[in-house]
Each structure stands twice: as structure tokens, then as C-alpha cells.
Protein: Glucosamine-6-phosphate deaminase
Amino acid sequence: MQIVILNDAIEVAAYGADIFTAQLNRNARSILGLATGSTPVALYQALIERNQAGDVSFKEATSFNLDEYLGLDGSHPQSYRHFMNSQLFDHIDINKAHTYVPPGDAKNPVAACHEYEEKIAEKGGIDIQLLGIGRNGHIGFNEPSSGLTSRTRVKTLTKATIDDNARFFKPDEYQPHLSITMGIGTILDAKKVVLLATGENKAEAIQAMIEGPLTAACPASALQMHRDAVIVIDKAAASKL
Ligand code: GLP
Structure:
């Protein structure tokens, strides 16, 4: 793992945007792995500005998102498809037909998981995968105890993750407890992985990922096995290292 410690969230987003810009400028047909959550929002904003300034193009790129709530279709405001459209895709020159998010409304979710894996393979695999990290060390929705070689599948969310993400839902709004997520094995197959984390509330998870043992108890620790994983964090997230 390469660990990059920067001053604040703004520097983390700019650093992440530089990596994605360089990747796309090297290979316009890159296969991008994308993430949701609050952490990547500033990076997406930076990419939108660079795209609109003509510094980077997504015209020939393809994207695969990590995960989606099972039970929400893409038009639902809390779905990750909706998040990606509103935070990134609607504002850049990507062909939306080439953006893939696991289908939260799949009639047969198990089959949909296999199809998602097949689609990634058909496109030649993910070149660069963006990740955030949950406070319990989850990546995508691979909660603690997830198999380290797991593939895209249906996962039950832990109470900790449901509570952490409750802030995005209105008090009386239905919040799914199930998801479809790329597996840890799927993530490890990406040629490059970039994990961003900011803020003191991520410091424990960051310490466990970097300094702790390789263990399913901290799914992000699986990145210790990756040949090209870059961990970009601010001083607060690095405070327990
Ligand atoms: C969700 C997503 C993860 C994300 C995590 C942290 O559970 N499935 O991909 O990394 O939240 O989100 P945030 O960046 O908002 O802290």
C-alpha cells in the first residue's frame, strides 16, 4: 500500500482527481470503478470542473459502481444510481449507457450479481477502482466477516452501517437493509485501487486497515494484498497511525 497523508479533505479530493485525470488522459477508454458516500463528492466535483474546462474527457470511458441498495430502483432519490447521476454523470460527457450500477430493482438479484461480474469481465476488467471506507472498515458494502475472495453478491448491512447511513434518509423513509455489492475479490481484481478517507471518525478504520492484521474483521485490510493500492487520507484520518 502506498499511503499519502495530506492536510485536509480538499487536498485529498484534488489528489484523487489528479489520479483519475492521469488515468483517463493515458487511456480514454478506461474502465472506472466508482463509489458513493460523502467522501468522493468533492473528487467528483473536481472532475466535473476539469471535464467542463476540457482537461479530461469521459466520452469513451465506462464505469462500474461498487454497490447499490437492494429494493430501490434507479429513480429513487436514495439509490446509488440516482446519487451517481446527480453527483457526476449528469454533469460530464460520459455516455450513460456505459455507466453500470448494480440493479437494486432486480427481480432475480442472485442472477443479477453474476451478470454484473460477467459484464465487468466482458469489458476487460476495472482499470482503477475508487473506494471510501466505512467506520467499521467496510469497502463497498462488504461488511466485517465478508469473505476476502468474495464476488458480487447480496449482502445484509450491519446495524452500524445502517445507523451511519441513516443521515441520508428522512426519519420516516424506508431504509433498505440489503445491498448488492462487488465482493472483496472483485475489488482486488482492479488493476489499481484508490481509497479516500477524511476526518477523525475514520481514524480507527484506517489504522486497522494499514497497521492491523489481514482479516475479514476489517474488510479494507484486504488491500494489504493489492499490488497497486493508494490510500489517500487527511491528517485527521491518519491521526491513529
Ligand atoms: C457506504 C458505501 C461505501 C462508503 C461508505 C462510507 O456504506 N457503501 O462505499 O465507503 O458508505 O461513506 P462516507 O464516505 O459517507 O463516510
The CA atoms of residues 157 and 163 lie 10 Å apart. DSSP finds seven helices and ten strands in the chain. Residues 2-234 form a domain with the Rossmann fold fold (CATH 3.40.50.1360).
